[in-house]
From TrEMBL, chain A:
<feature type="transmembrane region" description="Helical">
    <location>
        <begin position="129"/>
        <end position="150"/>
    </location>
</feature>
<keyword id="KW-1133">Transmembrane helix</keyword>
<feature type="transmembrane region" description="Helical">
    <location>
        <begin position="186"/>
        <end position="210"/>
    </location>
</feature>
<feature type="transmembrane region" description="Helical">
    <location>
        <begin position="6"/>
        <end position="30"/>
    </location>
</feature>
<feature type="transmembrane region" description="Helical">
    <location>
        <begin position="162"/>
        <end position="180"/>
    </location>
</feature>
<feature type="transmembrane region" description="Helical">
    <location>
        <begin position="64"/>
        <end position="84"/>
    </location>
</feature>
<keyword id="KW-1003">Cell membrane</keyword>
<keyword id="KW-0472">Membrane</keyword>
<feature type="transmembrane region" description="Helical">
    <location>
        <begin position="105"/>
        <end position="123"/>
    </location>
</feature>
Automatic annotation (TrEMBL), chain B:
<feature type="transmembrane region" description="Helical">
    <location>
        <begin position="372"/>
        <end position="392"/>
    </location>
</feature>
<feature type="transmembrane region" description="Helical">
    <location>
        <begin position="267"/>
        <end position="291"/>
    </location>
</feature>
<feature type="transmembrane region" description="Helical">
    <location>
        <begin position="311"/>
        <end position="332"/>
    </location>
</feature>
<keyword id="KW-1133">Transmembrane helix</keyword>
<feature type="transmembrane region" description="Helical">
    <location>
        <begin position="6"/>
        <end position="24"/>
    </location>
</feature>
<feature type="transmembrane region" description="Helical">
    <location>
        <begin position="242"/>
        <end position="261"/>
    </location>
</feature>
<protein>
    <recommendedName>
        <fullName>NADH:quinone oxidoreductase/Mrp antiporter transmembrane domain-containing protein</fullName>
    </recommendedName>
</protein>
<feature type="transmembrane region" description="Helical">
    <location>
        <begin position="404"/>
        <end position="424"/>
    </location>
</feature>
<dbReference type="InterPro" id="IPR052175">
    <property type="entry name" value="ComplexI-like_HydComp"/>
</dbReference>
Length: 226, 505
C-alpha cells in the first residue's frame, strides 16, 4: 500500500526498474538471436529481483527478500541456464523464418504499450489513484502481457515460445511486487516453483519434438487440423 | 467425517502412485490404479453426501469441502473409475507394455490433481492446482509419442499455459482490489473475496472477472479458446481422452463459477451472466460447424465436448435455480456419456486401425453389443430422450426462456438440432453395411465393453428419474452463488419439486 504514497525518490526508483524491464521486453521482441533473448530475459529477472528487494526494504516486508533471492536464482540463473542448454543441444541459434520482421513486431509492441497505458489510465481514474507509480506498474504489466502474446504468435522456435510464456509471467510478477507487495508469500513461492516444473516439462517435450518430428520449429507442427 | 473422506479421496491416488514408483510392474500397476479409483469413487460419494451446505474449511482455510466442489469431484471420480477399468483392456493393445507402469503413475497423478483443484479455497492455490493438471496431462497426451501426439501435447501446454496466465493476472487484480477494503495483507479465500466484493471497485472487478473467464475458459475449452482441445482429446490414449473431457473440463469450470459468485456478491449479476452466455453460444456455433464436417472419430467426440461445455456455460450464465441445477446435472450426465462415447470411439479406432470415420463401416454387424451401446450413447449425447442429457438440456433451456437469455435459448435450441442431425449422420455412415474393410476388425476386450454398460445404465436412470437429493444439492449451490443464505435455500428446496418430465416427451 505504501507504493501509493511513496516518496519521490522511491517512486522514481520503482519507475526506473519498471521501464527498464519494459525496454528489455522490447529487446527480446526486436532480436532474433536466441542468446540475446536469453540474456535479456535473465536481465529482466534480475531487475525484478532488485525490485522485490527494494519494495521489501522500503515497505518493510522482510519475506520479499527471500522472494528476491529466489527470483534471482530461479529466473535469473537456473531458467536461462536450462534454456541455454536446450538451445545448445538443439543447435538453434536464431529464428530462421520469422512471421513478423523484428521491425514490424517492434511497431506492434509500441502500439500495445499505448493500449496498455490507456487501460491503466482508465483503471487509475476509476480508482482515484493519485500515484503515477501504480499506473506505470499496471501499464508495464499489461504491455508485457501483450508483448509476450506477440512473441508467442510471431515466433516458431519452440524455445522462443517458452520464452514468450516466461515474459508473460515476468510481467505479472513485476506488477505484483508494486501493486500487492503484501500478497502471501506462500503463493509467490509456489508460483516460482511451478514455473520451474513447467520449464522442465518443456525441456522434455522439446526433446520429444526433436526426436519424433525432427525439428524444433513449430512450423512443422501442422498435422492436426479441422 | 467430511475431513476424513477428503483425506481418503486424496490419499488413495497418492498411495497408488507411491506404490507404483516402488514396484513398477505392469500387472501390479493396473491393480493398484484400479483399487485407487474404486476407493476414491467411494470417498467422493461420501464427500458429496456429507458436504455441509455452506462448506467447511480445513488446514487454516486452505481447503474447502462444499456442495459444488464435492459434486465436481464426484463427476471426476466416476470418470476415473470408468477410465481405469477401460484402461485394463485398452492400454494392452498399444504395444507399450514396458512403459505401462509409467502410464499408470501419470494417470493416477492426473486424477489426484483433478481431485485437489476443486478443494482449494484460495484462488491463487486453485490456479496452481489447475496449472498442475496441465503439466501432468501433457505427458499423458503425448504418451504414444507419435508425431501427432507430440504435436498435440505441445499445442496443449503452450495454449493452455498462455491462456492460464490471464487467469493469474485476474487473480492478482482480484487480490489488489481486495487490498482497498481489507488492507495490504490478507488471506485470500473465495468467501472473503465475496464478502469484500460490495466495497471493491466495480469496473476493476469486471475486468478481473473477464481475465479469469478467458484464462480458465481456455482450460474449459470454451470457443474461441478451444483450439488445443480437439488435438489433445484425439491424440491422447482413450482413457486419457475420457479423463480430459469428463473430469478436467469441469474442474476448470469450478473456478469460473466461484468467481461468478464473487461478482454476484457485488450485485453484478446481469453482465457477467451475459458474457458467460455469449461464450456458451460461440462454443455451440463452433462445435456445430466442426461436428457437421468432421472426419476423425475422436475429434468428433472432442468437438462434442466443446458443445457440452458451452451448454454448461449457458446454464451457469442463465443462472437462477433452474440454470444452475441444469448445468450441474449436465456435468454429471456429460461425464458419464462422454466417457461412453470415447470408449466406443477407442474400440472402433483400435479394431479398425483407423482414426478416420470413413474407414469404419458395418460397425454393428462386427460388434453387436458394443455397437448397440455406442449407438445408444450417440443418441444420448445429442440430447435425445430418454437419457440424462435430455433432462439437463431441457432444464437449461427452460432457464433461458424464463430469464434474460431468450435469444440465447433459441439459438441453443436450433444449434442442438443441427448437432443432432450432424452427429447422428456420422453414426449412420459408420453403422451402414458398406464395403468390407481390407482386414477383419480386431476383437475388443471385455474390459473395454464393461465400462460402457456402467456408463449407459446410470445415464438412462438419470434420464427417467431426477433424484430429489441431487435437486436439494443443486438448490444449495444455486443459492450460494446468488447469495441467499443456505437455510432459506434448504427450505425452498423442500417446497420445490424437480421440474423435468418423468417420461420421455
Amino acid at each position: 500500500m505504501t507504493a501509493f504514497h511513496a516518496s519521490p525518490v522511491v517512486a522514481s526508483i520503482f519507475s526506473l526498474i519498471a521501464i527498464a524491464s519494459l525496454l528489455l521486453a522490447f529487446v527480446m521482441l526486436g532480436s532474433r538471436w536466441m542468446r540475446h533473448y536469453l540474456m535479456a530475459f535473465a536481465a529482466q529477472s534480475w531487475l525484478i529481483a532488485i525490485l522485490s528487494a527494494s519494495v521489501g526494504y522500503i515497505d518493510r516486508y522482510p519475506e520479499l527478500y527471500v522472494i528476491a533471492i529466489l527470483t534471482a536464482l530461479f529466473r535469473g540463473l537456473l531458467l536461462p541456464y536450462l534454456l541455454l542448454r536446450i538451445v545448445r543441444r538443439m543447435n538453434v541459434e536464431r529464428e530462421i523464418v520469422p512471421v513478423l520482421q523484428p521491425s514490424s513486431s517492434l511497431v506492434i509492441g509500441a502500439i500495445s504499450v499505448v493500449f496498455a497505458l490507456a487501460v491503466a489510465e482508465h483503471i487509475g481514474t476509476s480508482l482515484d489513484l493519485s500515484s503515477k507509480v501504480v499506473i506505470l506498474a499496471l501499464t508495464v504489466m499489461l504491455s508485457m502481457k501483450l508483448i509476450g502474446y506477440l512473441m508467442l504468435a510471431a515466433r516458431h522456435e519452440a524455445v522462443s515460445q517458452v520464452l514468450g510464456l516466461l515474459v508473460l509471467e515476468n510481467g505479472i510478477f513485476l506488477g505484483t511486487q508494486i501493486l500487492v507487495p503484501g500478497m502471501p508469500m506462500l503463493l509467490e513461492l509456489v508460483i516460482l516453483f511451478d514455473l520451474l516444473i513447467v520449464v522442465v516439462c518443456f525441456g522434455v517435450l522439446v526433446r520429444y519434438l526433436m526426436g519424433q518430428v525432427g525439428s524444433t520449429s513449430t512450423l512443422h507442427l501442422r498435422r492436426l487440423v479441422g | 467425517m467430511t475431513g476424513l473422506f477428503a483425506i481418503v479421496l486424496v490419499a488413495a491416488p497418492t498411495l497408488a502412485v507411491l506404490a507404483m514408483l516402488v514396484a513398477p510392474r505392469r500387472e501390479f500397476a493396473e491393480i493398484v490404479n484400479l483399487l485407487a479409483s474404486i476407493v476414491s469413487f467411494a470417498a467422493s460419494i461420501a464427500l458429496a453426501l456429507t458436504a455441509p451446505p455452506h462448506g467447511v474449511t480445513f488446514l487454516s482455510h486452505y481447503v474447502i469441502v462444499d456442495p459444488l466442489g464435492a459434486w465436481i469431484i464426484l463427476c471426476a471420480a466416476i470418470v476415473y473409475l470408468l477410465a481405469s477399468i477401460y484402461a485394463l483392456g485398452y492400454m494392452r493393445t498399444l504395444d507399450e507394455d514396458e512403459r505401462l507402469p509409467r502410464f499408470y503413475q501419470l494417470f493416477a497423478t492426473f486424477a489426484l490433481t483433478i481431485f485437489i483443484a476443486p478443494l482449494m479455497n484460495n484462488p491463487g492455490v486453485y490456479w496452481i492446482a489447475i496449472e498442475m493438471t496441465t503439466v501432468v496431462s501433457t505427458f499423458l497426451v503425448a504418451f504414444e509419442q507419435a508425431p501427432e501426439a507430440i504435436e498435440a501435447g505441445w499445442k496443449y501446454i503452450i495454449v493452455v499455459s498462455a491462456g492460464i496466465t490471464l487467469a493469474l493476472l485476474g487473480t492478482v487484480l482480484f487480490y489488489w482490489n481486495g487490498t482497498f477494503v481489507l488492507g495490504p495483507t490478507y488471506d485470500m479465500t473465495w468467501a472473503i473475496l465475496r464478502h469484500a466484493a460490495p466495497r471493491m471497485n466495480h469496473p476493476l472487478l469486471l475486468l478481473s472477472f473477464l481475465l479469469v473467464l478467458v484464462g480458465y475458459g481456455t482450460k474449459v475449452g470454451l470457443a474461441p479458446m478451444h483450439t488445443w482441445l480437439p488435438d489433445a482429446h484425439s491424440e491422447g490414449p482413450t482413457p486419457v481422452s475420457a479423463m480430459l473431457s469428463g473430469a478436467l473440463l469441469n474442474t476448470a469450470m469450478v473456478g469460473i463459477v466461484r468467481y461468478l459468485a464473487v461478482l454476484h456478491g457485488a450485485a453484478m449479476v446481469a453482465l457477467p451472466g451475459q458474457i458467460l452466455v455469449a461464450f456458451g453460444v460461440v462454443s455451440l456455433v463452433v462445435a456445430a460447424l466442426f461436428i457437421v464436417r468432421q472426419r476423425g472419430v475422436k475429434r468428433l467426440m472432442a468437438y462434442s465436448s466443446v458443445e457440452h461445455m458451452g451448454i454448461v456455460a449457458l446454464g451457469f450464465g442463465f443462472g437462477g435455480p433452474l440454470g444452475v441445477a441444469g448445468a450441474m446435472y449436465h456435468m454429471l450426465n456429460h461425464s458419464l456419456n462422454k466417457s461412453l462415447m470415447f470408449f466406443g470411439a477407442g474400440n472402433a479406432m483400435r479394431s479398425y486401425g483407423a482414426k478416420a470415420m470413413a474407414r469404419i463401416t458395418s460397425f454393428a454387424r462386427h460388434f453387436p453389443v458394443s455397437g448397440a451401446l455406442w449407438l445408444a450413447g450417440a443418441v444420448a449425447i445429442t440430447g435425445a430422450p430418454p437419457f440424462g442429457l435430455f433432462a439437463s438440456e431441457l432444464t437449461i433451456l427452460r432457464a433461458g426462456f424464463a430469464g434474460i437469455g431468450l435469444w440465447a435459448a433459441i439459438v441453443m435450441a436450433v444449434l442442438l438440432i443441427v448437432i443432432f442431425i450432424g452427429f447422428l449422420n456420422h453414426f449412420r455412415l459408420m453403422y451402414h453395411d458398406g464395403a468390407e474393410p481390407d482386414s477383419a476388425p480386431a476383437p475388443v476386450s471385455r474390459w473395454c465393453v464393461a465400462p460402457m454398460w456402467l456408463a449407459l445404465v446410470p445415464l438412462l436412470i438419470f434420464g427417467l428419474w431426477w433424484p430429489s437429493g441431487f435437486w436439494r444439492d443443486f438448490q444449495t449451490v444455486a443459492h450460494d452463488i446468488a447469495g441467499v443464505p443456505a437455510v432459506a435455500a434448504r427450505q425452498q428446496a423442500q417446497t420445490t419439486s424437480p421440474v423435468v418430465p418423468r417420461r420421455p416427451a
